[in-house]
Structures are given as structure tokens and as C-alpha cells.
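Try this one yourself first.
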């Protein structure tokens, strides 16, 4: 008897065709206009040298959804691990 093949749907995550690059940022600048939101994520050294950067452009609708999801996720994080201290 053969083993049935697992069926996939469009709703299941598929492995990426190529590895997805990762980038760490310690500062983010945000620029907004009527048509897009641009996030400039940067890694800046303690000597204020730019070590790397990337720009992410989003529609205003996608940016609003990102803000909502990020707010929910950070509230959940703080509920689990405590308040995140911010510099003054």
C-alpha cells in the first residue's frame, strides 16, 4: 500500500525559493507621503558609522496593518516578559 501524498494549499507557508536575508537594525527612520511609507532601517556603530542599511517601502494600508500587528505583538511580549525599558 502506498503512502498518501500530503496535499498543500495556498494558505500553508511554503519554503522560500532562496534563503531570506536577515538584517539587524539599531535605528529606524520613517518617511511618509500620500502614497507610501518608507522605513529606513540602519545599523549604526558606537562611533556613529553606518554599517548597513535597507529601505522598506509600504503602502499606507500595509503600514497601518503593520503598526496594528506590531502594537499587539509588543503588548503580548510585555505581558509575558515585563515592561520594556526605553531610554530617556
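Now uncover the answer:
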Amino acid at each position: 500500500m502506498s503512502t498518501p501524498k500530503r496535499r498543500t494549499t495556498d494558505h500553508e507557508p511554503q519554503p522560500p525559493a532562496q534563503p531570506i536575508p536577515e538584517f539587524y537594525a539599531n535605528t529606524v527612520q520613517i518617511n511618509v507621503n500620500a502614497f507610501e511609507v518608507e522605513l529606513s532601517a540602519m545599523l549604526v556603530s558606537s562611533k556613529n558609522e553606518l554599517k548597513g542599511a535597507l529601505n522598506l517601502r509600504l503602502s499606507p494600508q500595509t503600514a497601518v496593518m503593520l503598526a496594528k500587528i506590531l502594537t499587539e505583538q509588543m503588548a503580548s511580549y510585555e505581558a509575558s516578559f515585563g515592561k520594556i525599558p526605553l531610554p530617556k
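Discussion: The first strand starts at residue 27 and ends at 32. The two ends are 67 Å apart (CA to CA).
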